[in-house]
Amino acid sequence: MMKFTVLIPAFSYAVKHVRPGLSLHLACQALALRRVAEPLGIRVVVASTPDEDSPGLWDRIRDAFDAEDIYLLDDGYTSLAQATSDLVKQHGRVVAHIQGTRQLRTLAGLRKEFPDRVRLVFTVHSFRNASWKRQPYSWILSHMLRRSVDHTVFLSPYAMNQFVNHKAVFNAGRGSIVPLGIEWDWEQGCEKPDLSFLDENVRGSIEDEAAFNFVYLAAFKPGKGHDWMFRSMAPVFRRHRNARLVLPGWGSDQIQTSLRTLASRLDIASQVLWPGRISRQDVVNLLRCCHAGIIPSRSETFGQCIVESMAAGLPVLGTRKGVGEWLIMDYSTGIGVGYGDQDALARAADYCLTHREAASAMGKRAAKLVRLAFDWDEIAASHLRIYQSLFQA
Known about the structure:
The chain is α/β, with parallel strands linked by helices and 393 residues long. 45% of the residues lie in helices and 16% in strands.
């Protein structure tokens, strides 16, 4: 087997609602790739700024990687180019799996400088696919991909089809669909979930044995569909006062204030729970106390909120966006609805409330599906096979 080094630039850049530094899914990708590649003698290197977007990520990286396989980029993109150049000169062939256009612009010159020794793989995470901006953005990015990237990865068929010029990428044989993974061992923890991180009133409502808890794992951002979800659920919640809507997350204060006002006007304020931003470690405990996921978003490039809810054994009600396009199978793993279809979402919620056993069965089927399909080690193995193919004659 041809040997090479894999570089994971595991940092995001500072834009609205995105914090710079080591991010969760990139840390998980690097850790899984390390587990898969190390037995094959393939080196994996992580490069990131010293920040992190979830507490404890650097501890996990340092526990798994040797010190010489971690590059701390104090000045971001400038030192990323230097670190990559050093890797090429010291170790020969390098595959850099990059995550954004700024990383691409930084490393494109090295691909030209070392045409036989540097390969670039680009994952398309987001491209304004919920708005008209996706069209010019897709055209511009597709030109950059064809010119400077050896292989492009889309996170779902839905995301690929939303990318205006995706056929040019795939017709050239330089595109793949590889999703993100789920990181937790969902089989662990038969004991009662620890909800001590929650406010006492929120915890009491969630733990109420008569309650039926819907949960939406989403930041408070435009396009996430919170407003029409509230209007859809309100008549159902007024009929079923044991229903709860759990909304953990962060984001726009303006959106949250507007939603609290809307909940009061719709007479469901006491049934909407606001845990605030919670740590990644606590997401599992929260999901284990819920009965159904609800995803009303206008668009998803991937849909971690769908996958994580299903992995916890919850049926998902909502729009078939991102991986939800094929994961949400009606009355098998969840119930799909069109964006903005208030009547359909209300019927789906009412069905789950009045058919608890059927909802539980849907959740079990969903968990069986996604725990297998989104195992991080399997996804890392797919990435590794892509890297290997790029150095074939």
